[in-house]
Amino acid sequence: MEKLKFIVFILCFLIVTVKAQTPRSVNLELLGVHNLIGFSFDSRFSNTSHFGYKIGVGYGFEKSQNYSGWMYEFGGKNADFRTSPIGFLRNQLLKNAVSIPLSIYYLTGEKNSHFEIGFGFTPYYADFKDYEYNNYDGTQIITDFDGFNYYGFIQLGYRYECSKLIYSAGFDIPFKTLGSKFEQTIGLYPKVSIGYRF
Known about the structure:
This protein is mainly beta. The chain is built from two helices and nine strands. The chain has a single domain (26-197), classed as Porin (Beta Barrel), CATH 2.40.160.20.
């Protein structure tokens, strides 16, 4: 709980201290490192800078009994909904995840259309379940465990900026980071967002 209070304090501090003239927005985020749904604060480092940063929070869950698969598993008894890259990349059955994606990006292009490339770091809290079988009678044993962890990611996408709205679509590429406990080396997850500039 103390860690969560500290993170919320840092987010509020950063938002309040951003200069008023810098381009900034609040965004609704879908998929990618924000899992199923999330929100983010986006700001450039200055009014003319192509560099910026994004701070967000997202939530995702899974309803699956299969270790393998991607966002949605088609066919078979294990066809269930998956909304987070964490379970697949760790090769564990995820129940819920709350992530805090932090990234720095660079925008190419001029006027309204931009190609965005970024690099980030995502601390997250997740709870998992593990299925085991008793060797004697075949009964199923479910073990729950949870905890904090993190991973790095790369972002590639297209961004269109209007006077008040920002539209973005692309891919988040989480990768195996030292200490991340990922079984998979890299992942590729689509993402979309819409933001309001202020």
